[in-house]
Amino acid sequence: MATDADNAQGKLWGGRFTEQTNQLVEAYTASIGFDQRLAEVDIEGSIAHAKMLGACGIIPDEDARTLVQGLTDLLAAAKAGRLEFRVEDEDIHMNVERLLALRVGAVAGKLHTGRSRNDQVALDMHLYTKRAAETVRQAIRTLQQALVDSAEANFDVIIPGYTHLQRAQPVLFAHHLLAYFWMLSRDADRFADVAKRADKMPLGAGALAGTTFPINRESVMQTLGFASLYENSLDAVSDRDYLVDFLSAASLLMTHLSRLSEELILWSSEEFGFIELADAYCTGSSMMPQKKNPDVPEVVRGKSGRVYGHLMGLLTVLKGLPLAYNKDLQEDKEGLFDTIETVLPALELFAGMIATLEVRRPRLQQAFARDYSNATDVADYLAAKGVPFRTAHEVVGKLVLQAIELGKPLGDLDFSVYQAASEAFESDIYERITPEAVVAARKSRGGTAPEAVRFQLELAKTVLATPGS
Ligand code: ARG
Q1: Residue 333 CA: which ligand 1 atom is closest?
Q2: Mind listing the domains of the chain with CATH numbers?
Q3: Could you tell me if 150 and 179 are in contact, meaning their C-beta atoms sit under 8 angstroms apart?
Q4: Annotated catalytic residue, options 49, 150, 164, 261
Q5: What H or E segment, with its residue span, contains residue 354?
Q6: Which residue is catalytic, options 46, 269, 285, 393?
Q7: What's the rounded Cα separation, in Å, for the pair 30 and 91?
Q8: Is 168 helix (H, G, I), strand (E, B) or coil?
Q9: Do 64 and 51 form a contact (C-beta atoms < 8 A)?
Q10: Is any atom of ligand 1 closer than 6 Å to the C-beta of 118?
Q11: What is the per-residue pLDDT across 267-316, written as a single tens digit (0 to 9) for each?
Q12: How far is the CA of 325 from the centre of ligand 1 (A)?
């Protein structure tokens, strides 16, 4: 029986070659340096394939058993990190096949019956991506839990809310954190959707056109726990849409983390002084002894760029690519792996950072002493007394101008000033415009009043408590 050693190349595909591969070509086109991450899923896929070959009578039962046994041993070795790969074997698929031959001998050559590396790599990537999407989704849930816990622990804290990064209206700190909870909920849903899109079985497509062997794709699909299979062999080996979906979901997730990063960075600055990040999540300066820098959110904000880059990179690889498999598609891997390895630690770090941050309550108590973020409430007060809101807005705008000139907040203006501005003002105006009253008045669903935020917080907890959420 012919083996790879029988050809000049010593390659599994070397039969039609008479010359050795140029070494630079070998090194440049090999993917084993990065696709070794697929070792486990590759072997799992091969076990399912070997079982099916035996069950369908395509190879003798005994051979199938030998293959499955050898592959099972390899899987254990892969899990223990004990497999040794060679660049001459190009990619994970051929490395595994050679390692199998070392264990079970020439029968290893039967494993690739009715299969191509094109459908094999597609299978591996589907399995890998499906699992990675689920892992990311769970890491998102852990961060959401940290946000809920911090919202709960700091429920009474009021912070300035901003639009245009100008003081707008006070909000509960919990309300602000929960805004990120809902963003992340959409991210979690998107990753669940990515897992669904990756839940399609490509094996059996062969190189591009299907196979002459009487294979049973449905049984492989079931063995590997896929929900459905590709109905078109050309599509099966060419489709990388689910990877674009993954990178796109990851990009948006990084966008959200970068927005939270920016706020944590601002809030922990002396100028804002709303929070203090735990020392464990900060670093110092080699020159300035006083520095405590928010490196974690800065690095995460920065790393959003590389994830976007991977999304653009893959879209560009796919653009204009003819059917079916082209080696360009090997470029789908590093960006995906790097994205997973960027996003997962970011989520873990954020969960720890949120859990350990401290709110600077004394600073926040002073935060409203000199601002006008209760001006809307003065206008709403008039409007509730029948003054048209536009008129009220104008009246209060002038009051704010007067207060700025006097160097006082609205709550410190003499009552005579209010009365001169509008007869509708009564002495209860003062109690209506404290930060607590301003927040408490926004009881509308989704608003920042404690009871509305409590309702929201309970909903958030329900999301986290839903089985499989
Ligand atoms: N390493 C390849 C990849 O990642 C596997 C498929 C190779 N197929 C081939 N016909 N060269 O895409």
Answers
A1: 4
A2: 22-113 (1.10.275.10), 118-163+173-366 (1.20.200.10), 368-465 (1.10.40.30)
A3: no
A4: 164
A5: helix 333-356
A6: 285
A7: 6
A8: strand
A9: yes
A10: yes
A11: 999 999 999 999 999 999 999 999 999 999 999 999 999 999 999 999 99
A12: 8
